[in-house]
Amino acid sequence: MIEIQDVRKSFGALEVLKGIDLTVAKGEVLTVIGGSGSGKSTLLTCINGLEPIDSGRILVDGTEVHAKSTDLNKLRRKIGIVFQQFNAFPHLTVLENVTLAPRKVLGMSRADAEAVAVRQLQHVGLSDKLGVYPGRMSGGQQQRMAIARALAMQPGYMLFDEVTSALDPMLVGEVLDTLRMLASEGMTMICVTHEMKFAREVSDRVAFFHQGVMAEIAPPAQLFDAPQTPELQRFLAATA
Ligand code: ADP
Ligand code: MG
């Protein structure tokens, strides 16, 4: 489980997270919505320790992410993260992209890493692309490869930061289908997204961020159909 306790984070004079409290249970699918600059990406990068926090605590399976004694490399293996940009290694094939971290970070043999990679690439529907270079694939295929690459580390948690925002509209569906599949398999996920229909369908809960505050959190039917704050009402009206 992921426990976020009164987390504050500033960049210089700008307070980006103003005391966030949130617990994500094992198997839960949480989506995070909110306007640009509301702190959504910062929250994800704090959870996996890419960014330090100013106060509060984040615990992943009981381990405090920002404690000095925490082995961040070890902790990060538990937490897969996929960003809006594809971040593929262009000079490596799809199979090489997906086997790289299991070999280098987990120390798996080539054969073992390839077995895991082939399984994950099948899982995301890319078993016919093993020898292809990422640049020869569509954005949707590249993003599914990025998901397979994260899954190849066998993480306990997956964080998705607007993974469909850079895609042509035609390619959004195939990536959302991949996320839906992971959700249905019981993966614990935090998905920052602008896809409201998707958020409504897959989420156990939806959190609405506004100016560094988690202004609302509720099951999707409640959050979308009965928004409590004027900020969320305005946000939903603007995205409808
Ligand atoms: P969101 O993902 O909700 O759009 P972010 O978490 O990316 O918002 O950013 C929140 C605020 O923090 C924004 O005003 C952004 O400009 C600022 N910010 C984010 N990262 C940095 C950084 N590395 N240095 C300075 N300011 C940052
Ligand atoms: Mg962001």
TrEMBL record:
Any Pfam family: ABC_tran
Regions crossing the membrane: none
Domain of life: Bacteria
GO MF term set: ABC-type amino acid transporter activity; ATP binding; ATP hydrolysis activity
Alphabetical list of CDD domains matching this protein: ABC_HisP_GlnQ (cd03262)
UniProt keyword terms in alphabetical order: Amino-acid transport, ATP-binding, Cell membrane, Membrane, Nucleotide-binding, Transport
Keyword set includes Cell membrane: yes
Ranges for domain ABC transporter: 2-236
GO-annotated cellular components: plasma membrane
Membrane topology reported for the UniProt record: Peripheral membrane protein
SUPFAM superfamilies (UniProt xref): P-loop containing nucleoside triphosphate hydrolases
InterPro entries: AAA+_ATPase (IPR003593), ABC_ATPase_HisP-typ (IPR030679), ABC_transporter-like_ATP-bd (IPR003439), ABC_transporter-like_CS (IPR017871), MetN_ABC_transporter-like (IPR050086), P-loop_NTPase (IPR027417)
Compartment(s): Cell membrane
The keyword DNA-binding is assigned to this record: no
Family listed: Belongs to the ABC transporter superfamily.
Name of this protein: Glutamine ABC transporter ATP-binding protein
Species assigned in the record: Paracoccus sphaerophysae
